[in-house]
Design goal:
binds heme C; mainly alpha
């Protein structure tokens, strides 16, 4: 059945709009869809009309909007028969892009006819969300407040499907996501095909947006920091301070097995032998960060053999 009943509208939209390559991004005038206007529908759908009028879709001065392409008909198809029938669910072949029975791909076509060329959605089809049949309307509301675009309400929309992240962002160490200071969309472009749908091409570039001081350049770089912040941090939330995945020395020992050669001795008090062991070495050795204070990279040029080890 998919695409049959709704074929008319979609082929109209895709043939005339998509094929012509005319899209929101390129300042196009959309094709006119036929059907009764908002004033007719308002008789029975006052709220839907009011909601529509509150969005940019109803802006007549913008030539690219549905307001200039048949208004309600752009997304719902020609409502003539629906009105004649006195309305009703599916009556007169009226299309509801929010309907559960319509395939995601078909729902999305309506939107993508205009939004495909937006730079943020150009790779939508290759995104994990598109691949899992998530529809534009799974997140967006067209006639009421669009919660997913408000920082404070956005997480709730995501949590409907992402339960694990709900648990994570409630942990003691976390980004201020629930407070609306950092949003999921600050780190994720959910319309993209980037790995993990990162807002920027990579994790580090995404984090640098707000944590610029971690970018360097440093005289001494710490390799994992330049590679991927999530080697040490779980950005949604953890039970350990500073969003760390585990505590030092364990965090560090994933890579620095100081067992064999032992921790180098430089002066009295610096641990010798296997760092996190027993005795003095153990006590001091556990607090790697007590000495290696600039773990993200350091700029010390003086006495760099020792200071360079992220110690100043
Ligand atoms: C840009 C596309 C678009 C335009 C234009 C549009 N709608 Fe909608 N409409 C939707 C989507 C998507 C839904 C599904 C629910 C939602 O997103 O709010 C919907 C839902 C509805 C519903 C409710 C169905 C339900 O779920 O109960 C009605 C009624 C409706 N629209 C009427 C209208 C009327 C009347 C107009 C013109 C004033 C209009 N729509 C313009 C996309 C659109
Ligand atoms: C005479 C009243 C009336 C008029 C005029 C009317 N509708 Fe409806 N419409 C209804 C009723 C009743 C429903 C069923 C609502 C329900 O069951 O929740 C409905 C349902 C809808 C739905 C949801 C369909 C579905 O299958 O989920 C959409 C979309 C819709 N109308 C759009 C429109 C548009 C667009 C217009 C103007 C072209 C319009 N309606 C004019 C009465 C009307
Ligand atoms: C006829 C073309 C057209 C169609 C079809 C269309 N849109 Fe839009 N949409 C626009 C234009 C134009 C804007 C305004 C863009 C801007 O201001 O940069 C817009 C804006 C938006 C916005 C931002 C609204 C705001 O108030 O800032 C969202 C979200 C959106 N559209 C989602 C959708 C979804 C989801 C669908 C499918 C149900 C859809 N659009 C269908 C043309 C369209
Ligand atoms: C997983 C949830 C989700 C899905 C699915 C989704 N969006 Fe969005 N959308 C968002 C969020 C969050 C924002 C606000 C932040 C941003 O721009 O990334 C947004 C913003 C937008 C905007 C306005 C801001 C802008 O970037 O111009 C438009 C237009 C839009 N989406 C269209 C679409 C269309 C079309 C689809 C389907 C192809 C879609 N969205 C699917 C979550 C979603
Ligand atoms: C500070 C940046 C940041 C914020 C804010 C953020 N994320 Fe993430 N998210 C990431 C990074 C980085 C990854 C990839 C590494 C990982 O899997 O831990 C990721 C991964 C994910 C994944 C994939 C997990 C997997 O195991 O594949 C989902 C789903 C997700 N985030 C959802 C969300 C939701 C929902 C929100 C808002 C409540 C959110 N994220 C907020 C940075 C962020
Ligand atoms: C309708 C359900 C649904 C909603 C709502 C939703 N997602 Fe997803 N999302 C999925 C599915 C399904 C996947 C595929 C992986 C999985 O099963 O977790 C996914 C995957 C992801 C991934 C991982 C991408 C990758 O490359 O592994 C991220 C990040 C993500 N979503 C973020 C978000 C954010 C942020 C929001 C809210 C703005 C959101 N999602 C809303 C269903 C949803
Ligand atoms: C949109 C801006 C933004 C982005 C992007 C961002 N952060 Fe943050 N980050 C913040 C804010 C705000 C805080 C809280 C600062 C405060 O509470 O004083 C924070 C705090 C932190 C903290 C300290 C947490 C604590 O317990 O004190 C770490 C670690 C962190 N971020 C890592 C990351 C990583 C890793 C990324 C990339 C995956 C990232 N951030 C992306 C804004 C951001
Ligand atoms: C090798 C592990 C490691 C990597 C990789 C790493 N960090 Fe950290 N990060 C830490 C440790 C350990 C702390 C706690 C520092 C302390 O207690 O003095 C920390 C603390 C932070 C803090 C909060 C304190 C501060 O210095 O502002 C932020 C923000 C932060 N990291 C961001 C990042 C970003 C962004 C990246 C990626 C560019 C990153 N980290 C990569 C280990 C790491
Ligand atoms: C993902 C692996 C990884 C993790 C986790 C990690 N490091 Fe490193 N670290 C490296 C690599 C790779 C180098 C560079 C090794 C080299 O140049 O011989 C390095 C170098 C160092 C150096 C020597 C720098 C120099 O000037 O030679 C110190 C000190 C150091 N790390 C401390 C730590 C501490 C403390 C932690 C825990 C907070 C930690 N590292 C976590 C991979 C890691
Ligand atoms: C009491 C201070 C102190 C503590 C605690 C400490 N270090 Fe060091 N670390 C140093 C000094 C000083 C050097 C430089 C030694 C040299 O250049 O010979 C160094 C060097 C290193 C190096 C470079 C080794 C090499 O062969 O180049 C690594 C890796 C390292 N530390 C990791 C750690 C880890 C992991 C911990 C926690 C288990 C830790 N350190 C705890 C002071 C300390």
């Amino acid at each position: 059945m998919k695409g049959k009943r709704y074929g008319g509208l979609f082929s109209m939209l895709s043939a005339t709009i998509l094929a012509a390559g005319l899209m929101v991004g390129s300042g196009f005038t959309p094709a006119q869809a036929a059907g009764p206007g908002p004033e007719v529908c308002a008789n029975c759908h006052a709220d839907a009309v009011k909601g529509y009028q509150a969005t940019k879709h109803s802006t007549k001065t913008d030539k690219r909007t549905p307001a200039n392409a048949g208004a309600c008909s752009t997304c719902h198809g020609d409502g003539t028969a629906h009105v004649k029938a006195g309305g009703g669910k599916g009556a007169g072949g009226i299309i509801n892009p929010g309907s559960k029975t319509l395939a995601a791909e078909d729902k999305n076509k309506t939107c993508l006819a205009c939004h495909q060329a937006d730079p943020r959605r150009i790779h939508w089809q290759a995104s994990v969300h598109a691949g899992r049949d998530v529809a534009c309307t799974s997140c967006h509301k067209l006639h009421s407040r669009d919660d997913v675009r408000e920082k404070l309400t956005q997480p709730q929309v995501c949590f409907a499907c992402h339960k694990e992240q709900r648990v994570q962002v409630n942990k003691p160490s976390r980004h201020p996501i629930l407070e609306g200071k950092v949003s999921c969309a600050d780190c994720h472009n959910v319309h993209s095909n980037n790995p993990k749908q990162m807002e920027r091409g990579s994790v580090v570039e995404t984090c640098y947006q707000c944590h610029m001081e971690k970018r360097g350049p440093f005289v001494h770089n710490h390799q994992p920091v330049t590679e991927d912040c999530t080697i040490c941090h779980q950005p949604h939330g953890t039970t350990i301070a500073n969003l760390l995945k585990s505590r030092p020395p364990f965090l560090c020992q994933d890579c620095h097995s100081l067992q064999g050669g032992g921790h180098p001795t430089q002066f009295a008090g610096v641990p010798t032998g296997p760092a996190p062991g027993t005795g003095q070495a153990g006590t001091v050795g556990r607090g790697c960060l007590n000495c290696h204070t600039n773990i993200h990279g350091s700029n010390s040029t003086q006495n760099s053999a020792t200071a360079g080890r992220f110690r100043r």
